[in-house]
Amino acid sequence: MRYARGVQLGLMWASALLIAPAFAQTGSIFTCTDAQGRHLSSDRLIVACLDREQRELGPGGVLRRVIAPTLSPEERLRAEERARAEAQVRARSNDERRLQQALLMRYRDQAAHQRERALALQPIQAMRQAALQRQQELEQQRRAAADEWAELQRADPTKAPPARLAQRKADLEQQLVSQDALVQGHQRELERIEQRFDAELRLLQRLWAERDAAAMR
């Protein structure tokens, strides 16, 4: 580790020695605060501050630029990771702004949003209603089969009901289970759509208020 750090410092010194003459010809003054807290200045890049920020001042003390520290490979990797994370945050922020702008363009007011909600719900509501109707039909058939079963049992308790009736009763029970799952699935989809539009509406109410306030300025 010490050897690697020594190599790094050696490279930093060599880099400074190579570029310092070029800086010296510009008439600039370089300032920094070193690791011991000393305020240093020079007419060339300050080697003792290669690992920290330096300022290049022109005539009259005007700031020309801020020179970033020379980074080690590990520091450079961390800096790149920070830059990537910041870029991702900016990308998400840009995506959010684009989404908000698209929502404002699509829904000028709450009435337009409500119309879109109704259109999205309509086909699912129709499918759920059809599934409920089929469920009622199956329930009626199941009750009829159960009544027939009970009638045969009353007529002759010792005689087993016909196999066809037992199979019919079992089939209806299974169809009712499947139909109930279908109805519940449609209900969950309706709730999901409602939740999506509710979330959009909360966002849109804020965006509409900001838009209207900006228009009144």
UniProtKB/TrEMBL annotation:
Segment forming the signal sequence: 1-24
Chain segments carrying region Disordered: 150-171
Keyword annotations of the record: Signal
This protein's name: ABC-type dipeptide/oligopeptide/nickel transport systems, permease component
Keyword Signal: yes
